[in-house]
Amino acid sequence: MTHHMTAVSFQKVSRHFGAVRAVDEVDLEIRPGEFFAMLGPSGSGKTTCLRLIAGFDQPTAGHIEIFGETAEGVPPYRRNVNTVFQDYALFPHLNVADNVAYGLMVRGVPRAERMREAASALELVKLPGYGARKPSQLSGGQRQRVALARALVNRPKVLLLDEPLGALDLKLREQMQEELKSLQKALGVTFVFVTHDQGEALSMADRIAVFSEGRVMQVGTPEEIYKRPRSRFVADFVGSSNVLPPDFVARHGGAVGWASLRPEAVRLSEHEGIGATIVSRSFLGASTRLSLMVGGQRLHATVPAGTSLPDDGSPVRLAFDRADLHLLDDQP
Amino acid sequence: MRSDRNQSAPVGLKIAAAAGLLFLHLPILLIFVYAFTTEERTYQWPPPGFTLKWFAVTWNRPDVWEALILSVKVASISTVIALVLGTLCAAAVSGSRFFGREAISLLVILPIALPGIITGIALRSAFSLAEIPFSFWTIILGHATFCVVIVYNNAIARFRRTSGSLMEASMDLGADGFQTFRYVILPNIGTALLAGGMLAFALSFDEVIVTTFTAGQQQTLPIWMLEELVRPRQRPVTNVVAMVVVIVTFLPILVAYYLTRDGDQVAGGGK
After folding, report:
1. Which parts of the chain are coiled coil (chain B) (predicted)?
2. Average pLDDT estimate for B131-160
3. Cβ contacts (< 8 Å) between A105 and chain B: which residues?
4. Is B270 in contact with A93 (Cβ distance < 8 A)?
């Protein structure tokens, strides 16, 4: 055992289903106590990675360690890892208290003690007194909290969350994001969170791994990922940056190569700047997102609400700082 | 489109429906009436008189008891075999994807679609070829072929509604395979198994065709009744036995019906 212990470590881990490379030579180091998000579109391998950590699936190649212990061949019920499932997977025949106490029950904890533990876990997720209800009598948000309590009552070293907020409406989702974050800070448990929502990953995670087609494209803090995407995929998927071809970059920035430019870094100017045409606009509340054409190049810009804008089809001038043009690593 | 609930059906339709129901159930009532008749050689209508003596006569006939005990044994053992095999098969087919899964599903259901006489002939020739002597156990094998289907069909419907992530959740929370079966799978499919088992029992209990091909000298209750109808001796005894068969097979079916109905509500509500 070393002093720089990792919570979960993937070393060249692959999971192939026949010809489909669901996970392809992934290297990951998840640190103890961090809130780690695995972000990617559906089919990018993030959920398969989660299942490999949980033990529902085994890698076809590579090596996984959970707190220094080899994970391959260890069944899910012998891993100190618990999961909050996407559909919550609450046991419909058990009431809320028995659902939460299930993990303690199968380990032989006496009834009185596990009921006490279940009650305090329910308090932790702000559902005190709900023990006697059946899962079918709860709302989606409440079921989600029960699923969280049922996992946390086992005091896992790693808590896996598979798109846990996907089924909730926007307001509830924002509230749960904050609660999950503060819960994680309070408990100090390593959270591994799978999501396809880049906003969710950026706002909640300490670090993010961006997945595409079974591979990890980039790992970093939300700020790094957002401000300095290394590839066109990350630039496009996280933050919907403008991905600009080398000739455009050379003409307006000086550097040679593909670059990303965040829409909020583009501003409209009165007199000087690059000539462009407004193609369309969408109102986002606090801001307006413009679709512009510069020569043959489409460009997105986000401007604060209240900026006076000419009609669609009108010529405008735009500007951005050269420092905001971020050169990408993958240059085809 | 559904018609208005308050709107009454036309009189003609009501009469037709009543006639249909009467046609279905009057003969069964007649069987019951003849169990009390004083005439023992022909089924004479109206019965010349009523008596309870056939119940005593039936009670004291050892051949009735032998047939009844054999039928109960056969039905019980077939049901147990069906419960084990049908559940395992349903779990395999619903729980995983593998080559030939649909084919296996079809092959399991096929025996119930086949006419009993085909199943009977096929089993008889198979037993002869394998030189298995006809016995109590060959009857059970014959009955198990269709009992397995009943349990399988009930179990697979429930398995499909029981989300696979429930089993994963159980494992994730520290339960091994046995604990997962005991605490999650069984409570979720229990009523379906009970219903399937009761239906299987009822089917086995009154089965004639497959039994005639797979039995040796043994007489199950339905076979005994068939033989008894040919011999005009103490005929109302057959009717008394018929009443017992109706009650023994009808009650489990009724219970099964209520169990699966409630089970559906529970399973649906849990989703």
Report:
1. none
2. 88
3. 183
4. yes
- Chain B residue nearest residue A55, CA to CA: B172
Residues in chain A within 8 Å Cβ distance of B170: 91, 102, 106
Contacts of B184 in chain A (CB under 8 A): 91
CB–CB contact A76 B270 (8 Å): no
Chain B interface, Cβ < 8 Å to A: 163, 165-166, 168-176, 179, 183-184, 187-188, 266-267, 269-271
Do the chains contact at B173 and A92, CB–CB below 8 Å? no
Rounded to a whole number, what is the distance in Å from the CA of A83 to chain B's nearest CA?
A: 7
pLDDT, tens digit, for every residue of A235-293? 888 877 888 888 888 888 767 788 888 888 888 887 778 888 888 888 888 888 889 88
ipTM of the complex: 0.83
A87–B163 C-beta distance less than 8 A: yes
Quote the tokens at residue B52.
């309870």
Nearest-10 crossing angle of helices A111-124, A140-152 = 130
Selected from 2.60.40.2950, 1.20.1730.10, 2.40.50.140, 3.20.20.150, the CATH number assigned to the domain covering A244-327 reads 2.40.50.140
| Mean pLDDT across B53-71 | 87
DSSP strands (E only) in A18-138: 20-30, 35-39, 61-66, 69-70, 81-84
CATH assignment of A8-235?
A: 3.40.50.300
Residue with tokens 């009501």: B14
Q: How far is CA B146 from the centre of its chain?
A: 9
Place of tokens 């994970």: A71
Residue in chain A closest to B173 (alpha carbons) equals A103
Q: Which two tokens stand for residue A24?
A: 């392809």
If 0-12 CB within 10 Å is exposed, 13-18 middle and 19+ buried, where does residue B265 land? exposed
Instruction: State the average pLDDT over residues A323-331.
Output: 80
Domain coordinates in residue numbering, chain A: 8-235, 244-327
